[in-house]
Amino acid sequence: MAEQQQQMPMLKISMLHHRDRSKDEETWMKWYLEEQIPRFIAVVHKHGIERCELYLTPDPFKEKFQADLDTFKGGRDAGWKMASYDAATIYWVSDPQKLRNLVSDPEYQKIIEFEKGWIDQNRVDVQAGTQYTFIENGSIVNTVTKAYD
């Protein structure tokens, strides 16, 4: 019987953006969804990125959940806080070279220029890693449960 080759998990790279504070949140979100994404996505697609997502974090959500953190942190230190970024652009790739190709594409520079005055170019955090799913469609998957003693 042939040995099965284990498939590497997809690499998830998240670019965490802060809006330029000269723009109100509603106007900024509208710009991102209606102006930025329609221009940006064709360049991303050209480089074979397997999946691209946008995750928005409106201030009212952050404020509400910060209040919850302050109340329900379960006796943990007071240092728990909501992340301050306003949007995450999330790329899923099977090969990190695809993202390298994207950010080195001359068309990508047009994206950066278009973002000026909308996205704070000096405050971008990046995360890179893999993601594991343990509850899907309401069921526990990919693990065997254990009890705390």
TrEMBL record:
Q: Name one Pfam family in it.
A: EthD
Q: State the organism named in the record.
A: Canariomyces notabilis
UniProt cross-references to Gene3D superfamilies, sorted A to Z: 3.30.70.100
Q: Name one GO molecular function term.
A: oxidoreductase activity
Name of protein: EthD domain-containing protein
Q: The EthD domain covers which part of the protein? A: 24-120
What family does the database annotate? Answer: Belongs to the tpcK family.
Going by the entry's taxonomy, the superkingdom of the source organism is recorded as Eukaryota
